[in-house]
Amino acid sequence: MQLQNPTLFRQHALINNEWKSGSLGDISVTNPFSGDKIGNIPSLSVNEVKQAVEFAKTAQKTWAAMTSFERAKILHQWADLIDAHIDDLAHIMTCEQGKPIRESKSEIDYANSFIRWFAEEGKRIYGDTIGAKNNQLRHIVLKQPIGVCAAITPWNFPAAMMTRKVAPALAAGCTMIVRPDSQTPFCALALGELALQAGMPPAVLQIVTGDAKTIGSVFTKNTCIKKLSFTGSTKVGKLLMEQSASSLKKLSLELGGNAPFIIFEDANIDKAIEGVLASKYRNAGQTCVCANRIYVQKGIYHEFMEKLKQKVNLMSVGNGLDNPDIGCLINHQAMQKTQELLQDALNQGATLITGGTPHHHHNNCFLPTIITDITQQMRIAHEEIFAPIAAIYPFDDEDEVIRWANDTPYGLAAYFYTNNHARAWRVTEQLEYGMVAQNTGMLSTEVAPFGGIKESGFGREGSKYGIEEYVVTKYWCLDITD
């Protein structure tokens, strides 16, 4: 790990502003492209995680007592340090996650946008004064920090998924404990180091590493933790929700997706193709909001397919540090699932247009792929692909494609391309998704609410709505008579 600032590479958990080892040994972290070992992280015990919770509980009272302006100053100092170390942070991310270095830099910038946004949004947590029925009473609504919070973040966006949860919590006056994925922990730990350098008070931000079940059991059952935020699979999200029932903690769950990407005949085809490339192949297709089912109206289907194939065949694949168009998949299991989904479709009659094989020189790299002639009996029609495979479906009319797009238990993101304004209203209103993008393949931003419906979860991250997840509403009824 060749860094300009070697102090950013931390191989310990961050507890009460100290770097700690774990009592259960170490977990090895490897580079998904080369297979080389990067380093180790400690595996913490239940008692060690509980100790972090106690530290957070004590720190929360002092942190909440600070003004929002005082908290914002520290958050901005943190953000300034992240900007100053973007090259090192991106290098760490690419080494542990595999995405192209330019995508890593883009993610660090995106991650930092949440810190700056919520540093200011924390100053705008407003209450209300409600008109009373008689002049003896006053009705006041207060917004207060919910308390100690915990977050479980995924491997595919190890920096952005952390700051999208941490920044609003800290801005609202909560303390936060983060458990990063053990495949990509070093980005989170580097951000923790910069938080210390920014003057973050003890135990306001802690990062615990180790077994997911061990740490998850503390997060869900410990009554001192008032809020848990999770990004990951629907299966695990349901389990966390079930385990949290005994403590009735507040939850935010950003879960699986099966995003439709609809292209109508009146769309700008070239623009739609650029949107598909951005949405489908970013991070090797390993995003919860990437295009999973691409629907193309029959009048433009053949032209679209030919142009898309030409673009895809020009894409490079390889080591993220060499800045290719597509990096590697996260591990061998991801490669195995990719091949199984594709083979299942081909065995049942799907047509391979291009790609379809692992890269013959690079570990865990899969060539950008296009398939068509897909039926509802194929696994790929229903499962989240999480790989650089574009599944294309021709369709006849608007009613048909809306029906197909909504035929899924998931409801995270949807995309469509059209220049018909009346259709745009109809489609947006009928799509059963928490986020809808028109004429663009990129919808994520710190200024708008991110989140899904149905089995894609609940709660929102980003925007003015994101900080509401970390406050409680208190009603104060005051009799002003002596």
From TrEMBL:
Domain Aldehyde dehydrogenase: 21-474
EC number of this enzyme: 1.2.1.-
Record-level Gene Ontology MF annotations: oxidoreductase activity
Active site: E254
Keyword Oxidoreductase recorded: yes
Oxidoreductase listed as a keyword: yes
UniProt xrefs under PROSITE patterns: ALDEHYDE_DEHYDR_CYS (PS00070), ALDEHYDE_DEHYDR_GLU (PS00687)
Keyword annotations of the record: Oxidoreductase
Pfam families per the UniProt record, alphabetical: Aldedh (PF00171)
Protein name in UniProt: NAD-dependent succinate-semialdehyde dehydrogenase
Organism: Moraxella oculi
Organism phylogeny: Bacteria, Pseudomonadati, Pseudomonadota, Gammaproteobacteria, Moraxellales
